[in-house]
Amino acid sequence: MATRIRQDVSKLAQWDATLLWYAKAMAEMQKRPINDPASWRYQAAIHGYQREQDPFASDSDTLPAAADQRTFWSQCQHSSWFFLPWHRVYLICFESIVAATVVKLGGPAGWSLPYWNYSDSSNPNARRLPAAFVLPTLPDGSPNPLNISARAPNDNGDIGMTPAEVDLGCLRDALYTGIADGGHPGFGGPRTGFNHGNGPTGGLEKTPHGDVHVAVGGDSGLMSAFETAALDPIFWLHHANIDRLWQVWLNRQSSHRNPTDAAWQSASNARFQFHDASGQMQTWVPSQVLDTTNALLGYQYEDTSDPFATGAPVNVHAAVGGPMGAVVQQPAELAGGTSAAHALSNAPSTAQVPLHPGASGVRGAALTSAPTRVYLNLENITGSGRPGGYGVFLNAGDAATPPAQSDPRFAGTLPMFGVQAASGSDLLHQGSGLTYVLDVTQVVDHLKAANAWDPHQLSVTFAPLRAGQQAPDLQVGRISLYYGD
Ligand SMILES: [Cu+2]
Asked: Least packed by Cβ within 10 Å: which of 46, 94, 414, 476?
């Protein structure tokens, strides 16, 4: 079997056969009932399902048996080191169902999913939705299923996404698996169990992944919540790009490696169960999907080159030898934190974080000269609805008008993708909310150089990424600063 090429959607003609067949297959899959694993709705429910949030819910629905729902639905892995391999299997199964549907409709064999490279700095339209997803009709004049209305307001695909929201700083992360207690969570996320919805999120999962979700979905669209995201056909091109960036990260440094732990490789307590295109159940583990060109997967990406110039630095934090030669990260030291939750709203707000330089030992004292790293932890972020995202600034005053994202006090973005699911108390998510870790080493270096650093006090400003985003009950449970290697 020849290896399929997943193509860059921006390099395809507006109605290239790949996109036209995707649209036709989507329309066909939408006609199938929700209890058919090859239906559009069932495929989306694998990621997340809540009846109250289902925009297509109808009295005539026959839902799968409860046991099947428990096994196959609401399985998406977030805030988890299984985020990347689980979504890779999810895509391969979806792609095979679309491909079979294309053949059934009289199209060619071997359909493969394109990817949306919104971070491509050589393409001025990279951050706009691809044209095929915003055109009202197909070439034959029939309605275009790829153009759904439940997205953020956009002007011909322009959703106002900024470079910071598609920043590829995660590719500089030295480790796949970071730590969960204050230091760097790693490129792929800290060690977790299955169905993990809480705790620190790996670098790639936060940005660009989470940012693109909420930028496309806005405050009411499908892409902004686990339970509806995969109903939007752009979801699959977004995740193809995330899957591609995993390969880009592996390619760019020989020291970049996947976890070797059996708990990850063979996921002994974390089977990924999906249906194939013929409706048969299949069980997968990460070790089967680490080479995309193997017989099971059979694909590669059009471009997995390094987006950074040759020799661009990697973040060398944590690269010390652990047991059996594994690269592990030293624990980081707490430098201070808030004791009360900080409420976020649709206006900028600032929190004060007391720091205790004495309590943080040698590293804190040595921070003025030593090349240690500084991590801002934003823990237990809870809330309901689809509250978009925030830009975070350090020591920017409590100005009602925060600086631009190009300002050196800008520390990064906080996408709220999945916050409602992570705040719930159902079986899948324990309700402790989202936790993000920002590496703020460069921002702190800048503040020190500008004589704007106070070792006893840090102010953190949160600015909504978009006007009008609704956050009625959103809060950050704790804001803390850690010093690490
Ligand atoms: Cu996603």
From this structure: 46
pLDDT digits (tens, 9 = 90+) for 16-74: 999 999 999 999 999 999 999 999 999 999 998 989 999 999 999 999 999 999 889 88
Domain ranges in the chain with CATH number 2.60.120? 332-484
How many angstroms separate the alpha carbon of residue 464 from the centre of ligand 1?
Answer: 21
Rounded to the nearest angstrom, the distance between the alpha carbon of 37 and the centre of ligand 1 is 20
465, 224 Cβ separation under 8 angstroms = no
Tell me how far the alpha carbon of residue 88 lies from the centroid of ligand 1, in angstroms. Answer: 11
Rounded Cα–Cα distance for residues 208 and 170 (Å): 9
What is the identity of the amino acid at 127?
R
Cα of 212 vs centre of ligand 1, distance in Å, is 9
With 0-12 / 13-18 / 19 or more C-beta atoms within 10 angstroms meaning exposed / middle / buried, residue 207 is buried
Q: Where in the chain is the domain with CATH 1.10.1280.10?
A: 4-301
317 C-alpha to center of ligand 1: Å?
A: 27
Could you say which DSSP state residue 158 is in?
A: B
Q: What is the 426 CA–ligand 1 centroid distance (Å)?
A: 20
Distance from the alpha carbon of residue 418 to the mean position of ligand 1, in angstroms: 9
The class of domain 4-301 in CATH terms is: mainly alpha
CB 184 within 8 Å of CB 437: yes
- 332-484 folds as Jelly Rolls (2.60.120)
